[in-house]
Amino acid sequence: MSTARISTLPNGIRVVTDTMDSVETASVGVWVGSGTRHEPAEINGVAHLLEHMAFKGTHRRSAPEIVREIEDVGGHINAYTSREQTAYYAKVLKDDTPLAFDILADILQNSVFNPEELARERAVVLQEIGQANDTPDDIVFDHFQTTAFPDQPMGRPVLGTPEIVTGMSREAIMDYMGRVYGGSRMVLSAVGAVDHDETVRMAADLFGGMSPNSDASSRPGEYHGGDYRENRDLEQVHLVLGFPSFSYHDEDFYAAAVFASLFGGGMSSRLFQEIREKRGLAYSIYAFSSYYMDCGYFAIYAGTGENDLAELTPALCGEIRGLVDTIDEYEVKRARNQLKSGTLMGLESTSSRCEQIAQQMLIYGRRIPLSEQVALIDAVDVAAVAKVADRIFSGRPTLAAIGPVDNLMAYDDLRGRLAP
Known about the structure:
The chain is built from 16 helices and eleven strands. By secondary structure, it is of the alpha+beta class. The strands form two sheets. A six-stranded mixed sheet has the order 1-2-6-3-5-4, sandwiched between helices. A five-stranded mixed sheet has the order 7-11-8-10-9, sandwiched between helices. A hairpin with a 4-residue loop joins strand 4 and strand 5. Helix 1 packs across helix 7, helix 10 runs antiparallel to helix 11 and helix 12 packs antiparallel against helix 14. The chain is globular and about 60 Å long.
């Protein structure tokens, strides 16, 4: 039974709580329904840089004081930026919940964006970009995204580019925050040893003065697909093969999640058993679905040696083409159980539950009860999974690969092998 309660402040901020009587801690946070896809092209990376700068001092606290105050009571605070959301969150003992809320409110409303701090943080983000570029099994996903969604906000990197970040001004960051961070696109989430009415009172006191207005428009995501390959002197080739998939709101959303688990979600999945266990063609291989508000994609990642690359891609194509007609009830049931267990295990963590309910509020405008989630997963049968697989693999593929790629199949040959 869900204990989640929801209230909305006059400025549009939604306050959602989920009380867990068995814990002595609280996870709290503010989720903003804006991210990389809501940025103008000329300031790509501003959402991420803003997330960094929020911790670099306010009118009330210096940067060291922000961290020290939360860590003095044994808590921790962090943030992240994605293509559609930015989150600021903390975990503390229950008696320190007011402090956590106060700090979150402070950094979201009173940050000073000190020019010296901005110069240092630009350098930090440039290091982060450099580190990502030096990590091929990380940066290959950015290249995949750009290739799948070219020349549009959905395809731009979350971190931005060195050229743009270097020139990002204080005024550009402040203007973006003032334009986008409005109550209508914000969810305050609190889970654990929390009281709903008290949380709403604190939220009204600390966040009630924020403007309700938010201009976070974005061009709809348009999947195109294509080919990206980068020859690097590496021990392995890092490869991502993907296809257009579905949004959060698609009727096949849960079937797509079951399919991803069945095809490449664990050691018992088809990809792991066939590609790694039987053929030994990859050390790491898995499949996953990424969903957005209006689009999505399904992808396979594999890390393989140069000598196995020529055999790997045809093997993947064979698994894809032979899938739809060979799905059986046993593996669908196993995938359903894996998905349900992952959902249930996540609910045992206050942090995971805090994030989940905040995201549900931003995406669906409501808390989805566990019983409803389980029922939707249980309703997925062989026919539903086969339908999803057919929908996904009928789309144009996207291929991104980094490493010694000379033995990689040509893109047109790949398309030919995957054609119905």
